[in-house]
Amino acid sequence: MTFARALAIAAGAAIVGGCSLFGDDSTVEPPAELVDIEQTLEIQRVWSTRVGRGTEGLRLGLRPSTDGVYVYAGAYDGRVVALDATNGRAVWTTRTDAPLSAGPGYGNGVLAFGTSDGELIALDAQTGEVRWRVPVGSEVLAAPAVGPNVIALRSTDGRLRGFSINDGRVMWTVEQSQPPLIVRGDTKPEIASQTVVAGFDNGRIGAYRLASGDPVWELAIGSPAGRSELDRLVDIGGDLQILGNDVYAVGYQGRAVAVDLNSGFVLWEQEMSSLAGLGADARSVYVTNDVSYVVSLARTNGVVQWTQEALRLRDLTAPVRFMNTVVVGDFEGYLHFMDVDDGRFVARARVTSAPIPAAPIIVGPNLVVQAEDGRVAAYTIVEEEQEEG
After folding, report:
1. If you write DSSP's letter for every residue of 67-116 in order, what string do you get?
2. How far, in Å, are 14, 27, 291 from residue 24 at the CA level?
3. Residues 130-181: pLDDT tens digits?
4. pLDDT for position 102
5. What distance in Å separates the CA atoms of residue 251 and residue 232, rounded to the nearest whole number?
6. Is the pLDDT of residue 7 over 60?
7. When comparing pLDDT for 136 and 9, which is higher?
8. 222 pLDDT higher than 70
9. Number of domains the chain is built from
10. Is the pTM of the predicted complex or chain greater than 0.85?
11. Which of 22, 195, 285, 353 has its CA 20 to 30 A from that of 268?
12. Nearest to residue 54, comparing CAs of 96, 5, 100?
């Protein structure tokens, strides 16, 4: 890990805590304590298993992916598993003998992982067999995005590259300037048809032709300002979303934006700062801001609909819409379920005691989450039976 990146982790914690970077630890604001809630929804654990050894404290980009039938997950010790999405039983297990740090991305029968020592690894999703592995020259902290012919990879050196899905050869490269101070963690590229959208450490997002890497548009959503490097820190380090023809993204010390996918035209913007990123559905955009408030914005115009402040500084994941709830994970392994209409808490479940580093995913009727200790678990909301009249 570079000094700048290690410093950025401490800096991010200091900023979120509302104290100076090198100040007295006694001035650091602690995370909010959890209080009892009225649990109006019953949350049921469907299955739970462990994948490899834990990675607590490394802040990696490991997060399950799915094809709707299987859940795929990997661990820092190199193990990769395919799990039956209905019961969590292992269908196959593979040892890559690599320090997996991001992924898997899934698409077209291929799983793609990035590693801490700078490799991109492609596996056959049906068998777990390693198809190829290529060096990329830098640590990878964002899951690759797998398209029909191209795997798009964002590495920590500021590059977005397209690799052939067949043999791993580099097809194109996009480079962005790297600021001297950055936050550990990168934005996963998102593919929509023949376009890939990515965020960068300099506060910019861009859309590029998937086949060639040619720019469609680029946009700054964070502008460095201030006297110190810490003041000028801008980053796109969290989840972005593409829904239909709209791109939604948020930056650290920047703004949340809705952008037209084809033109780069800004549809709306809302001043906001986030490290975790956002989620979206047909009606709303949900943001975890830099002090772990969960904010619901109207998808049409970005107007704030509600804000949940009770999880302040609990290092929340990006939110995800699940049934009639909005769900985030936190640093103590809890999942928090909020009513989609007003943000009030309706349920809570604890996956493990380890942090949950990335937003859960939706697989059929279940919510699937991976914690830093390697625990992968599926949850569902128990529907109340209707009484016969």
Report:
1. -SSEEEEE-TTSEEEEEETTT--EEEEEE--S-EEEEEEEETTEEEEEET
2. 11, 6, 20
3. 999 999 999 999 999 999 999 999 998 889 999 999 999 999 999 987 655 4
4. 95
5. 13
6. no
7. 136
8. no
9. 1
10. yes
11. 195
12. 100
Check the CA dihedral 145-356-336-352 and report its sign.
positive
CB-count exposure of residue 305 (10 Å: 0-12, 13-18, 19+): middle
Report pLDDT for 293.
Answer: 98
Cα 328 to chain centroid distance, Å, stands at: 11
Task: Tell me which residue of 313, 248, 245 sits closest to 277, measured CA to CA.
Answer: 248
On whether residue 326 sits in a domain, the answer given is yes
Residue 366 lies in a domain: yes
CATH number where 51 lies: 2.40.10.480
Gap between the Cα atoms of 19 and 159, Å rounded: 32
DSSP one-letter string for 19-45: S-TTS-GGGSPPPPPP------SEEEE
- Please give the structure tokens belonging to residue 301: 């115009």
Structure tokens belonging to residue 155: 């590495």
For the CA atoms of the chain, what is the radius of gyration? 20
Element (H, E) at 331: none
- Chain-centre distance of CA 267, in angstroms? 23
247 within some domain: no
15 by DSSP, 3-state: which?
Answer: helix
152 falls within a domain: no
Query: Which pairing describes strands 190-192 and 79-84: parallel, antiparallel, or unpaired?
Result: unpaired
Alpha-carbon gap, residue 368 to 376, rounded angstroms:
7
Q: Show the domain range for 359.
A: 37-57+318-382
pLDDT in tens, 242-285: 999 999 999 887 789 999 999 999 999 999 999 899 999 999 99
pLDDT (mean) for 309-338: 97
Q: What is the residue-wise DSSP string for 133-190?
A: EEE-SS---S--EE-SSEEEEE-TTSEEEEEETTT--EEEEEE----SS--S--PPPE
